[in-house]
Each structure stands twice: as C-alpha cells, then as structure tokens.
User: Fold Enoyl-ACP reductase from Chlorella variabilis.
Amino acid sequence: MASQAVCKAQGVVVGALRTSVLARPAPRAGVLAPMYSTKTQVFAPRPMGVRSRKMATVTKASANGAGLNIDLRGKKAFIAGVADDQGFGWAIAKCLAEAGAEISLGVWVPALNIFETSFRRGKFDESRRLSNGSLMEFAHIYPMDAVFDTMDDVPADVKDNKRYAGNEGWTVSECAAKVAKDWGKIDILVHSLANGPEVQKPLLETSRRGYLAAMSASSYSFVSLLQRFGPLMNEGGAVISLTYVAADRVIPGYGGGMSSAKAALESDTKVLAYEAGRKYSVRVNTISAGPLGSRAAKAIGFIDDMIRYSYENAPIQKELAATEVGAVATFLCSPLASAVTGQTVYVDNGLSIMGLAGDSKTLDRANA
Assistant:
C-alpha cells in the first residue's frame, strides 16, 4: 500500500508526529500539547531526594496538559535499504521527516537508477507529501551494497556486472566516507536491509551458500554499518534495525536461513547496544514488524496469507500500516526513548503474543 494512503488512514499516528517548522498549532484547552524541547536535561536522572524548582515546574506543566512532542529538527538520519515508497524504510524516513529530521538514503546499487528515475518523474510525489503540504526531500541519495565492506571484498563478477556500472563508492566503508565528507556527523542510523536468495526453500533444503548469503545481507550488514557509521554518530544518537517474529517462532515458508538471520540480528542488537553504548554513547534497538505487503515482502511468496492470518488472529484486527512502524522508530530515535536500548520492540498488532490460532479449523466444533 502506498505511504500516502497509509498516512491518511493513520491520521492519529501522523498527527502525533506533526512537528512542522512552518505551522505548529497552539494547544487547545484540555488537550495535550507539546512539552518536549531541546532541553533534554529535564529527562536526566537526579540523585534520590533532590528535587529542584525547575523539575517541579516541569512536572506541574505536564500535569496541566503540556504533553509530549517529538522534535528532531537539526538531526541527521542515514537510512540504508530504501528502494521504493512501499516498505518500512520509506515509512521510517517519512515519519522522521515529519519530526523535522534531515534524511539521506543508501539505495541498493541495482535499484538506484529506477529509484532516482521514479523520484525525478514524480512517481513518489503523493507518498512524499508531508502533513504541512510540502514534499519530503532527501539531502543525499547514495549507491550502496551492504554485503561488501570494502572493494577488496567485491568479486569480479559483481564489479563487471552492468547493474553496477557507472556507480562508485558503494561499499559500506566508502558510503560512510561519503557521509562523513558531506555531513560530518549523523544522529540516526537505520538498517532496513534483508535478503535471502533461497528464502522460499525450507531450512532442510537450504544450501550453505544460500544460508550464509542471508546471514551476510540481513544480519552481518547491521554489524558492518555500525562499525563504519558508529564513529560518525553524535553522542545520544540512535540506531534502528528491522526484524521479524520468525527470529523466535516457527514461520513455515520463511526459509533459506532468513529466520536464522533475524535471530542473529536480535542477538546482535543486545551485544551492539552494550558495545556501541560504551564506545559511541548511542542506543541500539530493533523493531519486530508485522507482515506488510511491500514489494520486497512479496518475494517470500506467501505475504498475503500472512497478512490475512495476522488479521484473523492478532488482538487488534486490522492490517498493519507502515507508518505505525515509522512512528515507533521515530520515538526510539528521539530523546523520549533515551533510556531504551538493546530491545526488540514488537509492532505487529499484538500477533507475537498469541499462542493459539483462533481461525484454526481444529477449533471449529461444528466440524468436530
């Protein structure tokens, strides 16, 4: 589904993120209005027993309906893995833009030409439209293939592939160097990458090559990104990846080592939260998103079945909107989540908590 249609359907979500510089409505009486500002020290812990007049004032303002707001103006976000306007990466970019962040993209090299052509011709204009009427812009669009750390890792057949012709500096280290040159520092890093060439094969039929390819593209790429981009991140920055419930539940049909890759991604999230937290003072989290009928997800082959299954069995019976994932990602990238790190956050209408499929034929007593 297109992001614009999703945003219209999810007005509450987008409204919660509305932080337009051009127009920010005054609070109505009795309605929660923005409280958060760039003075993040109001969220900093204080010694027990110490209560300053300033903190008491903020607390009182909150009690009177000052509310909370996500304001990411002045923040720079690099998002790896956007190739069209349908997936979670695009939705995260749009929600971050709604909050005022400046966005740069790393687009898979073979998809770059189509993406840039569609962008120039206005095919994304409707899904680019923000709540203030303007169109989301990107500061930079870089070619990127996160499977390769340096050019020394690139085999000859890829170097000579015509889909890579005319592009330079697309390995992870080279892309990070470009970002450092163009921006200097960033505040937000988003990993929206996954690929498994044998995803439709059961694990028992997956080759070593296919398994390792899934691990490389879907999980190690996250480690590689943080290795190269971590030194570019400002203290207090946030890193986000996307996972799936197949990391710890059996999803028949989600094969080729992809479930293993997602399990590794979730484990790495915890370790990287510790290591990158200590080394770079950034937070690392992953979002376990429910099924979405994006172009990339259709490669699995049964995404429509998963969407129907989720609708029938999740506690909240509705299709997942990409902007709902974008909204949670924006929260996790904001100072409002300053104490949240190393977590797998489920955004799936609650499907992950269920232990019994309510639409199972075995529960149909009429046929028993």
